[in-house]
Design goal:
Helix content: over 70%
Distance between the termini: 215 Å
Largest sheet: none
Strand content: under 5%
Structural class: mainly alpha
Radius of gyration: 50 Å
Number of helices: 13
Order of helices and strands: HHHHHHHHHHHHH
Length: about 300
């Protein structure tokens, strides 16, 4: 009773505090309302984004919205989508590798853009790491059983592989041979000129062999050629070797010319057949009587 009496006495003395308290309460209620509205809008935005992402995933996989499929149908559809995606990724992966091998196996391009084979260059090293990762994550075939996570990892690896190659190629074309000294650049220029002679079909085999040896000497210590590149270059240098069989027919006429002296040797017995010995005994017989009368 005393509590309530004291409360009412206090309220009678400070009744004017009701107005600022009502303002504070109104502000708090409005702030709560605004925060609730923002939370609701965020929920709606999240649901909308999830719906768009789901629709994009379905569209990317070539699917269509409809009734909920069974688990077996989902697994079959997922396997088909994985196979289609992996086929496209394999094609892109192989295309990038072929573009890289075009530099790695072509000695002329290696001389022109040596940074593409120099692992000391940061961008080239990053490309080689991306290639190693993509090769390691590549499934055995498009029909291989892989999980969603494996496909995603391989997708990211191929993307990084492609980007790393583009960056490394642009950097190599920008640098060219600027990282070498003046003497080394002269050696590279000589190697480039000699390489043209080594693969020139109009040059003789001896000229190509000499040019090939000098190319290897000029590149020694500057650019490391892979075994595959050396094999390809040697095949180009020896491309005119089939011209050697033309020499074999030339030996044939010589063999045919050998029988020609045989008919000449054939008539040789004919002079031997001449009976020169028969008339010779006759003269001695005539000469004998001539000697008899002279004896007396």
């Amino acid at each position: 009773m005393e509590f309530w009496q004291g409360f009412w006495d206090w309220a009678g003395n400070y009744w004017w505090l009701v107005f600022p308290l009502m303002g504070v309460a109104g502000g708090i209620s409005k702030a709560w309302e605004r925060s609730a509205k923002r939370r609701h809008e965020r929920r709606l935005e999240t649901l909308r984004l999830k719906g768009e992402i789901k629709a994009a995933q379905i569209a990317a996989r070539g699917g269509k919205t409809g009734p909920v499929p069974t688990k077996r149908q989902q697994e079959k559809k997922q396997a088909e989508s994985h196979a289609d995606l992996l086929t496209r990724l394999f094609a892109e992966h192989d295309e990038i590798t072929a573009r890289w091998l075009d530099y790695e196996l072509d000695v002329a391009k290696l001389i022109a853009f040596p940074a593409m084979s120099d692992g000391r260059q940061p961008l080239t090293a990053a490309f080689l790491r991306a290639k190693k990762t993509a090769d390691a994550l590549r499934p055995a075939s498009a029909d291989a059983k892989v999980s969603e996570q494996q496909v995603t990892e391989y997708l990211d690896a191929v993307g990084n592989y492609s980007v790393a190659f583009e960056i490394a190629e642009k950097e190599a074309r920008r640098l060219r041979n600027s990282t070498f000294t003046e003497d080394e650049r002269k050696r590279l220029d000589r190697a480039q000129q000699l390489l043209k002679v080594a693969v020139d079909e109009s040059a003789t085999q001896a000229e190509r062999n000499v040019a090939y040896k000098r190319v290897r000497e000029e590149l020694d210590g500057l650019i490391v050629l892979s075994e595959q590149a050396v094999t390809v270059l040697e095949k180009q240098v020896a491309r005119e070797l089939p011209a050697q069989p033309d020499a074999t027919p030339q030996a044939a006429p010589k063999a045919e010319a050998t029988p020609t002296p045989q008919p000449e040797s054939g008539p040789e017995p004919e002079p031997e057949r001449i009976p020169v010995s028969q008339p010779k005994p006759a003269p001695p017989a005539d000469r004998m009587p001539l000697r008899d009368p002279e004896t007396p």
